UniProtKB/TrEMBL annotation:
This is Cysteine hydrolase. GO terms for molecular function: hydrolase activity. Keywords: Hydrolase. PANTHER family: ISOCHORISMATASE HYDROLASE (PTHR43540:SF1), PEROXYUREIDOACRYLATE/UREIDOACRYLATE AMIDOHYDROLASE-RELATED (PTHR43540). Gene3D superfamilies: Isochorismatase-like. The keyword Hydrolase applies. Coiled coil: none annotated. Residues 6-179 form the Isochorismatase-like domain.
Length: 186
């Protein structure tokens, strides 16, 4: 597997979003994602962190958007966009801030990817039914080659995660474990 023109997207790994995951599975998830990040660094693959973040008062949130409007008060926190310290960005990593589920919506991700000449996106993140699904759909429409690190994703609903990673997402992306992806880089 070639690493040229590849970027690793690490999405929505914010304590404010991860708070609903019990500690043991969260620690294991972050450990696996950290392994993918380290492999990307070792192989000089750009690591791009995508975080959900809003201005004070969350003026980007429309009252017409039932999901985001219901969470508006949670978003009005200057620390909401912080990345979990276990997988925090290193010098040279890129952080983009989005305004909706897709990593592309309200962010400069597409400009960054063009600047890096990235054609292949490798993705991990929380949640599978949120940022992973939405970003996959939009990235596929933009003609990126896609890989999803299946054990680098999590959803509060295990059945939704299973259906998405075994039936829906494989139609647009290669599905692979973090260990297999790391071994393929060697």
């Amino acid at each position: 597997m070639s690493s040229s023109n590849t970027a690793l997207l690490v999405m929505d790994l914010q304590p404010a979003i991860l708070g609903g995951i019990p500690e043991v599975p969260l620690t294991a998830l972050l450990g696996r994602i950290k392994k993918a990040i380290q492999a990307a660094h070792h192989h000089k693959i750009p690591v791009i962190y995508v975080a959900l973040s809003f201005r004070p008062g969350a003026p980007e949130v429309s009252s017409n958007n039932s999901f985001f409007n219901a969470a508006r008060e949670r978003f009005d926190n200057p620390h909401f966009g912080a990345i979990h310290p276990d997988v925090a960005p290193k010098l040279g990593d890129i952080v983009v801030y989005k305004k909706r589920f897709s990593a592309f919506t309200g962010s400069d991700l597409e400009v960054v990817l063009r600047g890096l000449n990235a054609k292949h996106l490798v993705m991990a993140g929380v949640s599978t039914s949120g940022v992973v699904l939405s970003t996959t759909r939009e990235a596929a429409d933009k003609d990126y080659q896609l890989t999803i690190l299946t054990d680098g994703c999590h959803d509060a609903d295990e059945e939704v995660h299973r259906v998405l990673t075994t039936k829906v997402l494989p139609k647009q992306a290669q599905m692979i474990s973090i260990d297999d992806w790391c071994e393929g880089l060697a």
